[in-house]
Amino acid sequence: MKTSKKKIWIGCGIFCVLSALLSSWYAVAYNDSRLVVPMDFKDYVFDIKDLPMIVSIFLVCVYLAALFVMLFIHGGKKRRQAKETDVTRKINPKLGCLGVLGFLGFAGFWTYPVDGTVFPFAFFLFFGFFGFYYEGKMSGTFMDERFRENIVRAKLKAYRITFGVMHAALIILCQGKLFGNLEYTLIAAIISLSLALGLGIFLSEYLLYRYDHDDQAEEGGE
Amino acid sequence: MAEFECRLKMYRQMKDLTQEQLAEKVGVRRETIMRLEKAQYNPSLKLAVDISRAVEAPIEEIFVFQ
Predict the structure, then answer these.
(1) Set of chain B residues whose Cβ sits within 8 Å of the Cβ of A220
(2) Integer Cα distance of A88 and A63 in angstroms
(3) First-last CA distance in chain B
(4) What is the domain partition of chain A in residue ranges?
């Protein structure tokens, strides 16, 4: 994406956030916090003072929708480019740091006893993002037929390991209630499936790097 | 994978090509040419034909299957 386009998108984002902050401040200061604090919409009657809040919420929603569509189109373009040029996509290896988000999964051990929320356990999936480190290291690599074979080999092995782990976890979990509690069993299922999928995402990139890197390490130049 | 002997190095040197030059000619990476010369990679038919044309030698003389 061109720098000028990026600036426009960032500018629009800042404008939307500022409008949301200003309208929230206006609603809190002059409109009894309507549409800011939770309220019952069954008895809602439009008031002209609600307009700034409604407009800002609309702007934020439109911006998020446009951003989502733009990212989708951009991703498609990148994939097409990669196909046409036969070169792996360019990403920064530092994106591998996103794998740290996987530790958010531990938040589930805090939220579950408090209000029974279990979805944070699914964040263990993000451990798979550590694979971006290896993908970044292979950025811009020319994909010849041997490299493509290695991609397939790595993906196949990663899927086999992932499904093996998932299969083993499900067999163990289906034996019965864990600690005599069905909820614990389901939580263990969420954790093991998230970890297995994260492992699959990570392994496909890691194994590809190993196959390619090991080949190069063995070879002498000429 | 079928066992085979690869005489690519000999034919490449006869044509006075480096691995890099040959790789560029046939549209693969240099590492792939290295693997081929060590008979550690079984090429596709297209790549074998491209290599045969690049070094101007028959396929069956470059890749000898036992």
Answers:
(1) 34
(2) 30
(3) 12
(4) 1-85, 87-222
| DSSP codes joined into one string, A7-58 | HHHHHHHHHHHHHHHHHHHHHHHHSTTTTTS---GGG----GGGHHHHHHHH
Judge whether A217 is closer than 8 Å to chain B, CB to CB.
no
Instruction: Specify the pTM.
Output: 0.72
Distances (CA, A) of A34 to A16, A119, B25: 19, 30, 70
Which residue type is seen at A48?
A: I
Residue A158 in contact with residue A207, Cβ under 8 Å?
yes
Check A219 against B41: CB less than 8 A apart.
no
Q: Residue A170, exposed/middle/buried by CB under 10 A (0-12, 13-18, 19+)? A: middle
In this prediction the ipTM stands at 0.85
Residue identified by tokens 């309208």 is A23
pLDDT digits (tens, 9 = 90+) for A90-126: 889 999 999 999 999 999 999 998 888 899 999 999 9
Write out chain A residues lying below 8 Å of B9, CB-based.
none
Q: How far apart are CA A30 and CA A26, in angstroms?
A: 6
